[in-house]
Amino acid sequence: MKSTIPDTGVPITPPAGNGGDREENRQEASLHGEILLRLRDHVVEGNIPDGGRVPERQLCEMFGISRTPLREALKVLAAEGLIELLPNRGARVRQLSQRDLEELFDVMAGLESLAGRLACEAITDEEITAVEQLHYEMYGHYLHRDMHGYFQANQRIHESIVAAARNETLKTAYANFAGRIRRVRYSANFARKRQRWAEAMREHEAILDALRRRAGSELSDILFQHLRNKRKAAIEHLTEPHEDGPSAP
Amino acid sequence: MKSTIPDTGVPITPPAGNGGDREENRQEASLHGEILLRLRDHVVEGNIPDGGRVPERQLCEMFGISRTPLREALKVLAAEGLIELLPNRGARVRQLSQRDLEELFDVMAGLESLAGRLACEAITDEEITAVEQLHYEMYGHYLHRDMHGYFQANQRIHESIVAAARNETLKTAYANFAGRIRRVRYSANFARKRQRWAEAMREHEAILDALRRRAGSELSDILFQHLRNKRKAAIEHLTEPHEDGPSAP
DNA sequence: GAACGCTATTTCGCATTCATTTTTTGTCCT
DNA sequence: AGGACAAAAAATGAATGCGAAATAGCGTTC
């Protein structure tokens, strides 16, 4: 165990947050592509402490490759905003300040807002039915106080809306930003407050309603507010660590 | 035959800029960063034909560097969606289908829509005044049929709104997507139809009005529609090449 | 005893080198 | 003469080597 890492304040930020799209279809058979996927998962899943140093050499022997393809992968991850590269000082997993999180949530809110608007233009009755199905399922989890199930159904609903937008570029950007936030989710699980939970359910009712009526502009507003409230709950949770933990019914 | 080391005597600004300040851009002092910027501009400005091959070797001698930093830059550009990397077959500038363009415009619409909403929360009176200034300037260009001036003022207005959103993440993503579209702009200059031009002016009036009243939700709607109309005009222009070319007043 | 400065080791950045894969070209066969 | 196969040439993907910067370790000085 090495001594504590000298925190120099970490100034230099990655080149671009980018809403890039790397949906390149599975060309990832090449080594650097393979590494990119594995390394991204490794980071997103939180296997590396926040702001922790990640020496190239260590990752190389970890993946059993040379430095060249690894460095290429690192550059890409830096461009995605997951890590930051300090000149001559190696890579660190990017530590998100509260402000960063707020910004990310707002951008996610904007993307979902857009997704809702677009979805209203193109969604089929069958897809709406599917969302309704998920909604009721989620409601069931809510009644049973099953947070995990609720969380999953919730996520699938939002993904369904994004999918219904029929916009691959949006979908990719959405996935990218979601990845950045997910890292935080892993390290600090968002415990929902009871009150917020009920509120979220009401918002979801409104979402479904607007979607049924295909009221794009309205749905756009609701989704934005929904994510804004989510952001508020998340940030509050981070500032005052735990509010209530009981996940039991 | 010795390989002369291309010591171009590039300043390489030290990793200054420390402090809590997180400027997203231009930390690129390292070679690969420098190359990334130059190569991105090179591609965005359309110096390479659409779908054209981009041999590493050629670019290397063009920039006077070895392949390693260049390849790193290529990976990043691929992640950004500007080029695509074919396994063992080199890099090609990504050819955007009409569908891709539509998607990009819609995402841009979503981001600007978000920017407008956020701007209404944080914009100062001074900033609004600045936007008004640009608006009148743009109106002047409109009256004088100065398309270039109009275009620039227009762009600055949109950038001002994005800046007023106080969200660096959004700003970065916006710049990224704008870059992808700009490539198309260069190769096929969007000639505005007269009618669309007048329409755009009216929309901008509405934008300014909503911004003055800080009506976030409303501005969000207007901006989205504005970009949607822009998209329509752009796509139409691409399908039926030239409608009117005269840039002269 | 603590702060400063010097040296040694580690790590990073880029160039170069090696190994496959693709592309081109030249020849041979139909 | 045209096409197919094969070998050469070029280009890509990955590895290694070398110089430079940074971190760490240690000694000296106030």
Automatic annotation (TrEMBL), chains A, B:
Residues 1-28 are annotated as: Disordered. Keywords: DNA-binding, Transcription, Transcription regulation. Residues 29-96 form the HTH gntR-type domain. The keyword Transcription regulation applies. InterPro entries: GntR_C, TF_FadR/GntR_C, Tscrpt_reg_HTH_GntR, WH-like_DNA-bd_sf, WH_DNA-bd_sf. It holds the Pfam family FCD. This is GntR family transcriptional regulator. It comes from Bradyrhizobium campsiandrae. The lineage of its organism: Bacteria, Pseudomonadati, Pseudomonadota, Alphaproteobacteria, Hyphomicrobiales.
